[in-house]
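Sanity check

After download, print the first record. It should look like this:
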Amino acid sequence: MDLNARALKILTTLGQDPTCTNQELSQACGISPVSAKKHLAALYADKVILGVSAQVDSFAAGLEPIIAMAEVGPENWTTYEKSLDIHPYTKYRIRCFGNCIGIFSLFAIPPHSDQHIVDFMERLKEKEIVREYQLVTPITNILTVETNFDYYDREKEWLFDWEKWEKSLVNTEPQSLDGPAQSVLHRLNSADMRILRQLSKDSRRKSREIAAEAGVEPYHLSRRRKIMEKMGVIRGYRVLAGMHLLQLTSHAIIKCKCPIDTTNRVAAAVKTLPFQSTFIQTLEGFVLYTTTTAIDFPILATILLEQCDSAEISWCDYRSSFRYWFYDEPFENGAWNANHDYMVDTVISELDKYRHSTNRKG
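Expected structure tokens:
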């Protein structure tokens, strides 16, 4: 599909307000509602847009995010990825190359179950699937930024003033990110969890379709969705892009060590980047997962290296990435299943079965 100026405007508008109506979309883009609907359908049909996913706040939903950066050899990529597919609390994974050669993954786990993730990774080390690993715990809400195609010119590519951005980073006052949200798990039930799963798949589907998949009435979906947005369980929505857009950018992870003031300044500056990014504050500094171009990334890395004490940089293979929809099945009787058997033993057992069947076929 040709990403003309109109298509890029629609994408930017959706990035700013992913759940806007076709009427609101048409007004922002200066086209008729019928035309907006037609162009949006074409973007979906050509898989430029894969969907609009509700961003569920792990803390508010009674879960805690944790990052695993695992060193894994190419011969074990598929096996390790299968273990993440089996694990009930995996949120995202992607292959990376650089300081970490292996797999970057994000979990959202029940409180006080960190040791289960340690045990899980140690079991994988014993099986020589994982060589080494680092676990990183976010200490604030995760910051997400959407792509702004107003900075993209099809002939000149991305037009972003890095010099101005660097000055803003240096001169801006540190702005603390919001701390972890209070859990409202006691106010959620199984129907809410099913709704969250469907909204994480694609929130722009027709309400009656989402309601049917979640097993609730449309009026119940609308009411509970508004309540969960108000409670902060749904922090916002993100446009999921297809390869047409991803080919415009390169994906990378930067893990930096720096003082808290530097972390807060970088966080404020990241909000003004035109590239889809995820910023995660840690005890040592931050992790930035971003989608800059091959030309722009060295500039970004240089600026951050000048501001931070140290940085570990890895390129990512987006073709290997996998996003897991919000998973409701571990929610039982008003609580998340935090049993060691469920989070470790059962997963390893299923992985062993997979490896046995794979070897037998081979």
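If your output differs, re-run the checksum step. Summary of this record's structure: The mean pLDDT is 92.
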